[in-house]
Amino acid sequence: MGRAVTVATCALNQWALDFEGNLERIVRSIHIAKSKGARYRLGPELEICGYGCSDHYYESDTLLHSFQVLEKLLESPATQDIICDVGMPVLHRNVRYNCRVIFLNKKILLIRPKISLANAGNYRELRWFTPWSKARHVEEYFLPRIIQEVTGQETVPFGDAVLATKDTCLGAEICEELWAPNSPHIEMGLDGVEIFTNSSGSHHVLRKAHARVDLVNSATAKNGGIYILANQKGCDGDRLYYDGCAMISMNGETVAQGSQFSLDDVEVLVATLDLEDVRSYRAEISSRNLAASKVNPYPRVKVNFSLSCPDDVAVPTCMPIQWRHHSPEEEISLGPACWLWDYLRRSKQAGFLLPLSGGIDSSATACIVYSMCHQVCLAVKNGNADVLADARRIVNDDTYIPEDPREFCKRVFTTCYMASENSSQDTCNRAKLLAEQIGSYHINLNIDAAVKAVVGIFSVVTGRTPRFSVYGGSSRESLALQNVQARIRMVLAYLFAQLTLWARGMPGGLLVLGSANVDESLRGYLTKYDCSSADINPIGGISKTDLKNFIQYCIENFQLTALRSIMSAPPTAELEPLVDGQVAQTDEADMGMTYAELSIYGKLRKIAKAGPYSMFCKLINMWKEICTPREVASKVKHFFRMYSANRHKMTTLTPSYHAENYSPDDNRFDLRPFLYNTSWSWQFRCIDKQVNAL
Length: 694
Hints:
One of its GO terms (cellular component) is cytosol. Its EC number is 6.3.5.1. One of its GO terms (biological process) is 'de novo' NAD+ biosynthetic process from L-tryptophan. Pathway: Cofactor biosynthesis; NAD(+) biosynthesis; NAD(+) from deamido-NAD(+) (L-Gln route): step 1/1. With 694 residues, this protein is an alpha/beta fold. It folds into three domains: 4-302, Nitrilase/N-carbamoyl-D-aminoacid amidohydrolase; 326-446 and 494-572, 3-Layer(aba) Sandwich (Rossmann fold), CATH 3.40.50.620; 592-693. The protein is built from 24 helices and 20 strands. Strands 1, 2, 3, 4, 5, 8, 9, 10, 11, 12, 13, 14, 15 and 16 form a 14-stranded mixed β-sheet that branches. Helix 1 (19-35) links the parallel strand 1 and strand 2.
């Protein structure tokens, strides 16, 4: 009868400008889709060049190489007898567009440019592309000669159109268009489009996956239809981790779910669905049918091809499933671990080095590396040849098979406890025990000689010797002495990262991991160019509260009992002298605010777009049971003074895994001045006036 259609979508670990690798992964996904009977294959946004090319989109080379890859795809036997939908940049009449190129049997059917561009948060698409603003309009696109020679076509349709096959009608959306209030699928559905496709470049944020799933399901719940979503996965060269979650939905229910976190470079979902289920679902929605009778029709590109088979009565179709969401603790365990693996293998380094202090932040970072080792061993066990090849290259052993996470951790992970006269035996023991339990190669060293040497140079030059405040020194002296310790640890971390493997008679170097959390960065509670300065930081976008919950998760799921004492100890920098052998310095006392308060300030500042006065107005209601308006005013003023005085530190912040929407990342997510008038005189006067009135 020609009613059961088989379609495929995928999540690909593409890499910006890796045209050769991207081509191989695209072809592999098409092979898998065809082997499972699919007649249509959808790929992620800009999959040919990789989503994260940034200003490389300006280069004609990027356009040229994208068309060269398209040429290879058109010529490949793999792409015959299946509609292929791929993403790439296209220059049309000297304007650059983010496009889908849809082709079948060496013929391009349609080039569909993106209509709504993502331009908030981490996205800057309007910098490189122009949105297609001509609704339901199609123009002629003149193909480059290298494509003409393959297709025999001089021009192809370019614009806002849909495909009409012999058995159904398909319409494309691209990423942001699903999130827009006037999504194209609404009008397309009213115009009889039965299959909607969405190619995405959507990154991971804690607790975000359900929003994407809900949007996809709601797209067809009101209007009926089949919705197919493809997404990028992995680290394609920057701070973001694209989290897959390819999915297929019909009539408001999920029928196929891809993984959110995985070390598989290619993941393909295939579903067989009954078009009559869409038609019968729509038949009884009278409001939809009334609107459909008045809709402005889309241009249709006729395709002499079917997504179904003539005799398909006995073909089994997919049934709805329940989407399984990860807990935030699972997301922290898996997302940054996959990001670290991509960074390690693609940077061609031999492992990681982490200054392990025995506190929550560095311990959480160590646990994420340990989780990465778990994921590698699991992937190899499941037959992932790519992961096995990468692991063998990293450890420089062609016969090696990673089976035990602790043993693999020993090969790729070095931890280093850098003691000073201000360090307690407790933190030293905690770091050592955790290193033993995860299996890292652990180093204990003492930095006192280096600190004395640096301070000694200052004393020789100036004739003055700075002292800690507990010994009668000023706060300036005490802070400078703390910063010397912190910065020497950074210098030693890089020295050991470069030469530890050399000293052990092994090849390669190590990537240095940072471990400053998002709240400390927001407050500026870190020394500029200390151990927060590293190559990458897997927890830089995660709050202290979430990290504590993650530590508890690791205790229960990885049986890392060493974390219990780390959880119970108050966070401390251990940069001031001990009192009777015990730590007297704590982070929250130093900061003048709690980590819980910091998370609230961060969300109000970034997500709620609140300045000092608006934050005060919101908090007097949120905290009315625990603080007077005058106390709230004092807290808000202290936060903004500290935040603005330390904002310059964000300009050199280590590239961090993006996981929170209140991240202060200065690179492209949170664009602010770094030289403020820290008195905030006008803003604080408004607060004082309101306090007096209250």
